[in-house]
Amino acid sequence: MRILLVASAFNSLTQRVHAELREHGHQVGVELALGDEALRARIAEFRPELILAPMLTTAIPEDVWTAHTVLIVHPGPKGDRGPSSLDWAIHEGAPEWGVTVLQAVAEMDAGPIWASEPFPVAACGKSELYRNEVADAAVRAVLTAVHRFATGGFEPEPLDYDRPDVRGRLRPYHEQRYRRIDWAADDTATVLRKLRAADSQPGVLDELFGREYFLHGGHREDRLRGTPGAVIATRDGALCRATADGAVWLPQLRSRRAPGGPPTFKQPAVAALGADLPADVPEVPVSPIEAATRDTWSELRYREENEVGYLEFAFPGGAMSTGQCRRLLAAYRYACTRPVGVLVLGPARDFFSNGIHLNVIEAAADPAVESWHNINAMNDLVEAILTTTDKLVVSALAGNAAAGGVLLALAADEVWCRESVVLNPHYRLMGLHGSEYWTYTLPRRVGTAAAERLTNEALPVGARAAAALGLVDRTLPGDAAQFWSRVRQDAENLSAATELADRLVQKKRRRAADEAIKPLSAYRAEELAQMRRNFFHPGEPYHQLRRNFVHKVRPAATPSHLTIAR
Ligand code: COA
């Protein structure tokens, strides 16, 4: 079928639906919802048999939904309506929620139902939930609805609040007044629910040291305590704040935009506070090994099980600043000293990595210089992985990766991927040539022609398509927990296999042979020569593209790489 995706942004779910529908053999076009006239023109040109809106915050014009079947993905169970479905679900502690595919009609979210799928509400932030449980349920519902539409004869179910399975209702926008934290009275569980319901947008509006900030993210602290509301510690850029019965970590803050002032954006909390943070707030570090045994916030955890080392990292938004790359490299170097044959890298859930930290770069006094430091720190990490010859290294991707984050994964010997993962192995959209030794690893895996196509097309690739290309080695089904239980099993088998010693010998030989043909330092120098131009040459588009990304500037038209039907 010719299916046109209409979306407010080409976000994770839209990318996933795009990848899944293409894998199912459909011809898929994308149009960003940037105006009714542009949409009408695109429909006339693309002639879709079905229009699907995976993530739409505006209404479809009446002439479009009367002339075409338009299916809307709504992140709520049957009967749920309104713009803040997930916020309410998390705020109220719903154990289970749903995704419903309904037909566009005049009233928002009130059309007949084509499919609905439940999902468990994990204890995490809204956007993480959206990229994981919601996305998985949405894809199931979309594929069911598309199949029902394609085969014909299916009568969508009118919304009827008298039916026993229609338990949702119309709810208002989740305003800041519902989100406000009463630090003196709210216990940790309540504070976490409020933080999670607001993450990553819009954040919880709050006050710190006399200024207003939006709080983003939140994690329980198991030991530190203090006067409710007081900032009691910092760690790797995050703040620890006492609640009525415990404490929580706040990794990121965004200043409230002053009337007529410049737009603001998220930053690591300590950086956002700057000189406002009192000097007597102590930095309370935790080692990756200790963090693995505690319920505290840490971007890094390291543990060993049955001769396998697991280095877990989790960076908000998958973004890795210079400091985060260096800390991960230090943890990696430590892991390399351990007596394990197999080392597995990757977060428990959500983004594996999205490359250098564009927000931290944007906030730097000299963004070009900070970009340079960041890419070099990233390259040092990738180099350390590429040159590890006494262990088999596995990248385990429970969640998506993009740009340098994909290439970070590819530095490992094997890349294992959850089936739901979407990869964006390209840098072009940020105006960058790219580094992370991609000119060595990408063609080596997929061949020169495919490497060129992937980097030029700049389209998302679903996990199964990535496996077919050789971009990843294996895909594993299930949710993040099921994925990790398979990863653990298979890593232990690898570690116990008699071939492991042989594989390590071969690995060492291959690295030496590759080095003799062209040293890693030459790949790095060539890539960085181009990156230097991207960062420091005045005519380059990178700084403007980064600024647009960080400030979430909507494009004027659907980008051309998306308008070609695939
Ligand atoms: N630096 C800083 N923040 C980043 C980031 C990066 N490299 N990559 C993602 N983020 C942030 C986003 O701003 C967003 O923040 P928010 O929660 O405040 O909205 C969050 O992570 C999730 O990203 P989002 O864009 O909403 O997710 P998505 O699934 O729709 O799209 C990407 C994912 C990776 C395709 C998109 O974020 C992207 O293009 N990132 C930039 C990749 C890049 O060019 N890296 C630099 C070159 S190595």
From TrEMBL:
Pfam families in the record: ECH_1, Formyl_trans_C, Formyl_trans_N
Parts of the chain that traverse the membrane: none
Domain Formyl transferase C-terminal: 179-255
Matching InterPro entries: ClpP/crotonase-like_dom_sf, Enoyl-CoA_hydra/iso, Formyl_trans_C, Formyl_transf_N, Formyl_transf_N_sf, Formyl_transferase-like_C_sf, HoxX-like, NiFe-hyd_mat_HypX/HoxX
Gene3D superfamilies on file: 2-enoyl-CoA Hydratase, Chain A, domain 1, 3.40.50.12230
Entry's Gene Ontology molecular function annotations: catalytic activity
Limits of the Formyl transferase N-terminal domain: 35-145
Name of protein: Hydrogenase maturation protein
Taxonomic lineage of the native organism: Bacteria, Bacillati, Actinomycetota, Actinomycetes, Mycobacteriales
